Amino acid sequence: GAGVSQTPSNKVTEKGKYVELRCDPISGHTALYWYRQSLGQGPEFLIYFQGTGAADDSGLPNDRFFAVRPEGSVSTLKIQRTERGDSAVYLCASSSRQGDEAFFGQGTRLTVV
Amino acid sequence: GESVGLHLPTLSVQEGDNSIINCAYSNSASDYFIWYKQESGKGPQFIIDIRSNMDKRQGQRVTVLLNKTVKHLSLQIAATQPGDSAVYFCAENIMSGAQKLVFGQGTRLTINP
Question: Where are the beta strands (DSSP E) in chain B?
Fold first, then answer.
């Protein structure tokens, strides 16, 4: 595709359930980022992949959050035992090389009820 | 800690006037700054960036000014148009060679006809 694609666009889940959020970066982009944006706030860094490996996961809030990028392209953000405080828009971005401009997807709006 | 903030949460301007959006940052070691535009339901869109070895950079209808002495960043939009209505974020890149960004809370720009 022409841009970063995130699926689903919206996800409603019950407290305690497990969710997976998917990101398809721009083809050929080696760097991939996950951010989380709460209502009325700016995005907050979660994790950064360079290729298949997580180069920096210092933004993940706790061990319920995990992300993978097994083939260096598509990435999945996984949240276990969801809590209402996890409700937010989860944004994915990719860039062609380290340090180059990052292009954001439209985000996945997660609502935990 | 590292943080980026904005002086004004909302800004209303008349169509055709110039807009100025301000931002303060706290990490004096940061050397790369970016302005993003975010429309409702979309991810942040890159507008313009500036490195710390510059104090001004111009794009199409936009200018970014950087004052490292007082750690202040501003975005100027010339001849504001209805399509400029959005939330604007400044972001500070805190990782050399990657896009690990610290965003401010944002300024909502509304255009009056």
Answer: 4-5, 10-14, 19-25, 32-38, 45-51, 56-58, 62-67, 72-77, 86-93, 101-103, 107-112
CB contacts < 8 Å between A and B, how many?
A: 62
- Whether A49 contacts A35, CB under 8 Å: no
pLDDT tens for each residue of B43-76: 999 999 999 999 999 999 999 999 999 999 999 9
Closest CA to A98 of A59, A38, A49, A61: A49
> What is the four-CA torsion angle of A70, A72, A74, A78, rounded to 10 degrees?
40
Pairwise CA distance, residues A35 & A25, whole Å: 14
Tens digit of each residue's pLDDT (9 = 90 or more) over A25-61: 999 999 999 999 998 899 999 999 999 999 999 999 9
Element (H, E) at A21: strand A19-24
CA angle A10, A93, A62 (to 5 degrees): 70
Query: What pLDDT is attached to residue A66?
Result: 97
Q: Residue B61 carries which DSSP code?
A: S
Peptide bond into A8 cis (omega under 30): yes
Please indicate whether, in this complex, the C-beta atoms of B99 and A106 are within 8 angstroms of each other: no
| Mutation target vs B (from A21, A30, A47, A104; most B CBs, 10 A cutoff) | A104
Q: CB of B16 within 8 A of CB of B83?
A: no
